[in-house]
Amino acid sequence: MSASVLISTMLLTGCSSLNTHNTVDKTEVVKSSQVAPIPQVGFRYSDAENFDLANEDKLSWRIFYDKPSTGTDAKWFDAVKRGDLATIKYMVNNGQDLEAKDTGSLNQTALGWAAFIGYEDIVDYLVDKGADIYAKDDGDVYNVMKSAVLGGNTVIVKKAHRLLSDKAPVNLNDQAIEDDGETFIMVAASNNRIETVKYLLAQGANPNLVATTQDKTMQSYNQSAYSYACTRGHVEMQKLLASKGVVNHRTGKASCQ
After folding, report:
1. Looking at residue 34, what is its pLDDT?
2. Distance (Å, rounded) from C-alpha 28 to C-alpha 40?
3. Would you tell me which CATH number, out of the four given (3.40.50.300, 3.20.20.70, 3.40.50.720, 1.25.40.20), belongs to the domain 173-257?
4. What is the dihedral of CA 175, 177, 178, 181, to 10 degrees?
5. How confident is the model over 70-101, as pLDDT tens digits?
6. Where are the domains of the chain?
7. For the chain, percent helix, then strand, then coil, each to nearest 5?
8. Helices in the chain by DSSP H: which ranges?
9. For residues 213 and 223, what is the distance between their CA atoms, to the nearest angstrom?
10. What does the record list as coiled-coil region(s) (predicted)?
11. Neighbours of 241 (CB within 10 A)
């Protein structure tokens, strides 16, 4: 065999080995990216923080921390409720439906839960992946902003507001959306979400509107932002609203009595 042929053969063999090695490396990378992460133990937020979001006296139908999720997508919703972003990403990369419904809890979506509980990074991730910002549940949620207003993270409220505004104007004083005529600021005041009320006021929300329902069995009957703060004992909320010139429609002045 001539020297030139020998050299050519050696070069071809070396390239072939290199290509095979690269293929093996790429395969190993793909396999390693498909390894499920170790599930997060417990919730990201403290018991006190979770309790402040929902408890037997406040949004009891949205308590998420007392028992595991149920239904076909229970693992998915457990990851969302705990704030386990690594598991969420892994499941999405392996085909998890973003719009799956939490059948054990009002058919809420993952985005709705994340916005309510206050996981900004999960909200960002799900929105980036195309989650529906208008997803509803079987309770009182009709878009991601309502979920956020119910919760306690005002940063998410602001982001949700921008997302919706990019699609169409958001009327913060529209009393025709909810069947009882509640507005975002009434909802926020009733649940003592002080920073969210400040934001909504700055955005032009009318704090003196009164819920329109005539159904006396509804908790929103004859309620406004200020009256909610009074009937639920939210003293700091009362002070905030009074400082902004808000009136308790039941008393005609900025007071509970």
Report:
1. 74
2. 25
3. 1.25.40.20
4. 10
5. 999 999 999 999 999 999 999 999 999 999 99
6. 43-170, 173-257
7. 50, 5, 45
8. 3-33, 47-53, 74-82, 85-93, 110-117, 120-128, 144-150, 154-167, 184-190, 194-202, 225-231, 235-243
9. 9
10. none
11. 27
Q: What is the pLDDT of residues 151-170, one digit of tens each?
A: 999 999 999 999 999 999 99
In the predicted model, what is the mean pLDDT of residues 121-145? Answer: 98
What confidence score (pLDDT) does residue 79 get?
99
CB–CB of 106/138 below 8 Å? Answer: yes
Q: What is the pTM of this model?
A: 0.86
pLDDT at 16 > cutoff 60: no
- Say how far apart CA 89 and CA 87 lie, in whole Å: 5
The CATH fold assigned to 43-170 is 1.25.40
Q: Which amino acid is at 115?
A: A
- Residue type for 166, please? D
Whether 43-170 shares its CATH topology with 173-257 is answered: yes
